[in-house]
Description:
mainly beta, four-stranded antiparallel β-sheet, 3 domains, Lipocalin, eight-stranded antiparallel beta barrel, 39% strand
Amino acid sequence: MSAPALFAQDITGTWQGTLAQNGNQELRVVFKVSKDGNGLRGLLYRIDQGPQASACSVALTGRSVKISVPSISGAYEGKLDSDGVNLTGTWTQGAPQPLNLNHVKEELAWPLPEPPAKPNPMAADADPAFEAASIKPSDPAARGRLIQTRGEFRAVNAPTSVLMEWTWTLHARQIVGAPDWLDVDKYDIVAKPDAEGLPSREQWKTMVRKLLADRFKLTYHREKRELPVYAIQIGKNGPKLTKSAGDPNGGPSLLFRRLGELPARNASMAEFASVMQTAVLDRPVIDQTGLEGKWDFVLT
């Protein structure tokens, strides 16, 4: 008598287990696996670290389950038991760690943390400015640079040229005839909007343009020139990106983890192109992929 096909069963649903962290501490890990037209997919929740989810690709081959979490450079490999309800395996994000998962019914699943209440968006027709802005010279010994929009605008160790590149989505080569101080003098800036609600990305940029004109006395004009560029295009085998499960109207996470490794979460191709041209490459970068929406991936 032949053995029944053990792995024709559905592995969708909730898988959960714990990772050892810092001695006796444990981190609860939950994978939510589902099906779509392209096969299996999943969401990873590290529920002791917050409500955010990371999109996963899931593959089942015989007894082996492989889960890839590109946005955090994480991967899981496990083997199902004969009942298909337990996975014994390893989580790898840096050093490998043992991680065993149980397939549980929803009533036995650990509750997921509630996401924080989202602030209402700023009115689309609002024309905001900064109500108050603190602008201070940066510490000359400071390293790194940051531009952040989370309820307030924050720039750290940022020269005026970088603020211009950010607000007009420019490459440094597109700023011509500027005085030397534009690149040399660096500032720490904290500024709050004068209108209620969460500004869109374009509204943030509008406020920074007004700040540059008011506090930095910046004047400029536009002209057209031909420049060499880099173009992001889809390879012959198609895109290998994961559709983001993040807020489609939210901002991206595009911060280098280390030299040569850029995890991207909830990023559009235009936002990715902007980071590549302002932080990495020696010429403007244009998006020719035609890919709409937000994506999770890791550039290595």
